[in-house]
Amino acid sequence: MRKLGVQDIEEIALGAALLGAGGGGDPYIGKLTAIGAVKECGEVTLVDVDELEDDAVVVPVASVGAPTILTEKAVGANEFAKLLDMIEAYYGKKAAAVMPIEAGGVNSMLPIAAAARLGLPMVDADGMGRAFPEIQMVTFTIGGQSASPMIFIDEKGNLGLMETVTNKWVETVCRAGCTACGGSVLSVEYVMEARVVKEFGVKGIVTRSQELGRTIRAIKNCPEGMTPEQYFLEYTRGHRLFKGKIADLVRETRGGFNFGRVVLDGIGEDKGRGAFVEFQNENLACTVEGEIVATTPDLICLVDTETFMPIPTDALKYGKRVLAVGLPCFHLWRTPAGLELAGPRYFGLDTDYVPVEERCRR
Q1: Which segments constitute the S-Me-THD-like C-terminal domain (predicted)?
Q2: Which of 99, 209, 321, 352 could potentially form a cystine with 16 if both were Cys, beta carbons 3.0 to 4.6 Å apart?
Q3: 47 forms bridges with which residues in the sheet?
Q4: Domains of the chain with CATH codes
Q5: How far apart are CA 293 and CA 243, in angstroms?
Q6: What is the pLDDT of residue 71?
């Protein structure tokens, strides 16, 4: 158990932006929301899930929709309380804590804002260990936890509750409602007892995000005898995929998602070679000289070649110099159930999943 203040939020936002694999929303927008809530309502208590009783009610909070839209549709101060009131009325129980559902950008920050404004602790765990574009893509689905009821609210005050027959149907119905509400809503889903988080959650993800953020901010002070790139790859347990300059970028918002492809011309030791990264909110696959070198559910991250700051898909720009890095995913994503939910073939990629560490040994 520890307190999260403004400095902690800065570090968590940076590290979570890396774990977001290009998605999860603009970390800057989320950071401002969290900092504003903490300054107004006080610091947030971060707790290990094992500190909670097994039957304690944990409430994940997230934004659903296209990340680019959040720059125009900020989250207000009252939406969290309205969502919580409906959840507590539905279950007839008081919530014990809130929790991030994913690590990445705005969705690592909104639970901090919610915890501050609701006066609840936040659990140091999530359901991905990264970010994914669809609601059913969480480790709790693998564990059999229902996403229903899902409650959502938009900035206009439209509030809805849905119950569906599967978690995929939550995604389908919510995405239609999200599009109707302008492309982005605040939501609560996968309300569960702490025992489920203990068994299927990605524990320590907030702390991991903060450690990564702290390391990136101090990357120039790397150990003697190592370059910043070597230190970055060693600390993140990452695999170097490609270094290049953005030569072309195609991006469109469709059905509540950001779709696109970024084309890279090689620089440095990759000069003369080409690569591209495909994304749907998050980066899905990296291909170098016609060979796939990493796919979902492993994390594909684009970072600045000098500062190693992560670059979300909605911030990619022509001419930017980036390093593509592959990070191994949480172990449950490599199971048959995990690959069915978020493997490459789910996204229409014509390849079987091969762990990034194996692809990079070839």
Answers
A1: 166-356
A2: 209
A3: 123
A4: 2-206 (3.40.1610.10), 222-359 (2.40.390.10)
A5: 13
A6: 63
